[in-house]
Each structure stands twice: as C-alpha cells, then as structure tokens.
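Whiteboard transcription, Tuesday session. T.W. wrote the structure tokens on the left side:
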C-alpha cells in the first residue's frame, strides 16, 4: 500500500508540471495574438488617415489645376502637400507623388510620416518585441474633372452666343446679357421665343431641373421672372453688399424652338456667371445695381429702362467638389466643372 501512494503522488506532480508548461505556451500565443491585433489595428488606422490625406490632396490639386492650368505642372505637388497634413491625426503625411499623365485627372500617393520623429515608417507597438520590423503604409486617390451634364438651379438659360469666358479670371470681360428689346441673346438663329429670354419651366419655386443632350427644356414665357424668386435675389444682393461674390451656374443652350409655353431650349452645358447687377422686373428684389450711376456700371452696361431686362457680370471658372446636385461627364466645357473622387 505505501508504494501505491508514492506512485500516485509522483503522477500528480508530473501533471502539475505539464499544466504549467501548457499555460506558459498559451500565454505566449495569446500575447502574440494580442500584439498582432493591436498592431494590425494601428496599421489600418494609419492607412485610413493616409487615405483621407490622399483624397484631400487629390481634390485640392485637381481644383487648383482647373482654376490655374498654367501652374499645374509645377505646383500640383505643393498644392497636394498643403492639404494632406491636416487630414492625419499627427499632422504629418508624406506625398510620394502626384500623377497628371491622364487628362483631367490627378492621382496622389501618400505614405507614412511620423509626426514626432519624422521617420517614414510606422513602429509597431508590440510586435517589435517579436522582432517584427517597422512598416511603411501607402494610400492613393484619383480625382477627376468633368463638366456637369445635369443640375438644378435658378431657372434662366443663356445662349451660347452670349458666352465669353475669356481668360476666366477676375479681369474677364464684363458684359450685359439682355432680353429684348435690343437683346441678341435669346436664340442664336435670331428667332426669339416671344417673351421667353431663356426662362425655364420650374420644378419648384424659382428652381429648374435641366439636363444636357437630347432633352429639350420647356420655356416659361413672359417678361418678368418666374414667381418665388425674391428670396434668392435678396440673397445675391446681401452677398454682394457684404463684399462677397454671387456666382451662379446657368445652363447654356445652343438652340430654341417654337413660341411661348411651347418653346424649348436645347441645353449643351453649364457656365458660371459672377453677377454685378440685374433687372428682372421693376423695383424691390427684381433690380439691383442696374443703372449707370451704380458702382462699376457704365452706360453700355446699364439696364435702367422700364421693360428692359438684363443680367450684368462676367463668366468665370468654377469648381464644385463632390456635389450631390450635379451630374458630371459629357456636357460641353464652359469653365464650370464637377470634381469627384473616382478611386
């Protein structure tokens, strides 16, 4: 009996030793798995920041390349670099490259930059204890520039005969686009739609939905603007009087047919007009800085008389970024474009 007791004790001691080894091995596995989870999470977080930076850099460079194309080849990289740091948590991101090889596209590639040490790699917090090397994370984004093909806005269409983008800078030609009498900008064929002057059918008060291509936009005949425009015009006025710029995107048409309510306009693209003044009716919101005594006005630009109708200003380049109200890709390029991330 004593021998049996001795054997039983040794067996239990052996089992305790085996369990200790198993626990030690499992601890190493769990620590390794935890280290990998934390460090992989850190890498994914870094890549998300780099993607934000690449997206911002691509959009910024594309916008500036469209507004000032002569500077694009030499300045696209600095323009992208201006936007990338603010879109990473540590305020530091390397812009590896800016690719302009595809027309109307800008591709930006970013990589890790440590905001404290300036190193170009990411030191893993736990996996380095397992002799894992640091890593460099990359991200890329491409922004495309294309003219709009559809949109909604102020219900006035402008003939392509009136369009003159010139150099698309603040010194671009200031012009008056008039409704008859004396107007030449209702129909390029010379056959004006009586009372039309490009007023469009409305989808909602003072808003028309338009599209380029084969669709013909219906006219809203009459000398005065469609109803419900006072609030929009007051907004333009307040912006201008506060020293700002009222830039409005108008659809551009190349043909007009029929007369009155049966009239249609064939929309081919969109152009942005920096507005100086207007006369869409008499008094109140419907006329603003439209006489030769107003700031910047001249006798040639003024539109003061009873039934005269006009809008005064200059065509400028305009970029809208990731707008939900504009479709892009296919309309004629009149200096107004939609910039979107495509990958």
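and on the right, the sequence the group agreed on:
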């Amino acid at each position: 009996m004593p021998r049996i007791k001795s054997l039983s004790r040794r067996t239990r001691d052996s089992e305790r030793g085996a369990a200790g080894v198993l626990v030690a091995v499992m601890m190493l596995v769990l620590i390794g798995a935890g280290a990998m989870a934390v460090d992989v999470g850190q890498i994914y977080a870094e890549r998300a920041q780099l993607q934000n930076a690449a997206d911002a850099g691509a959009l910024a460079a594309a916008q500036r390349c469209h507004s000032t194309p002569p500077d694009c080849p030499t300045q696209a990289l600095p323009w992208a670099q201006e936007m990338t740091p603010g879109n990473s948590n540590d305020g530091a991101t390397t812009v590896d490259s800016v690719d302009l090889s595809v027309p109307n596209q800008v591709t930006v590639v970013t990589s890790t930059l440590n905001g404290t040490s300036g190193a170009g790699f990411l030191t893993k917090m736990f996996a380095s204890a397992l002799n894992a090397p640091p890593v460099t994370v990359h991200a890329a984004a491409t922004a495309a520039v294309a003219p709009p093909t559809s949109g909604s806005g102020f219900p006035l269409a402008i003939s392509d005969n009136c369009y003159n983008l010139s150099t698309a800078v603040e010194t671009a030609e200031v012009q008056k686009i008039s409704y008859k009498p004396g107007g030449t900008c209702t129909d390029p064929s010379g056959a004006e739609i009586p009372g039309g002057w490009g007023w469009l059918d409305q989808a909602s008060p003072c808003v028309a939905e338009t599209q380029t291509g084969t669709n013909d936009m219906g006219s809203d005949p009459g000398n005065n603007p469609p109803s419900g425009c006072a609030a929009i015009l007051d907004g333009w006025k307040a912006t201008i009087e506060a020293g700002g710029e009222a830039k409005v995107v108008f659809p551009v048409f190349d043909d007009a047919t029929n007369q009155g309510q049966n009239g249609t306009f064939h929309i081919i693209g969109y152009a942005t007009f920096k507005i100086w003044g207007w006369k869409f009716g008499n008094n109140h919101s419907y006329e603003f800085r439209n006489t030769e005594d107003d700031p910047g006005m001249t006798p040639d630009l003024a539109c003061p008389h009873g039934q005269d109708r006009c809008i005064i200003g200059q065509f400028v380049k305009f970029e809208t970024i990731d707008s939900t109200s504009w479709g892009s890709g296919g309309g004629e390029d009149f200096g107004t474009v939609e910039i979107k991330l495509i990958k």
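Someone added at the bottom: The chain is about 25% helix and 25% strand.
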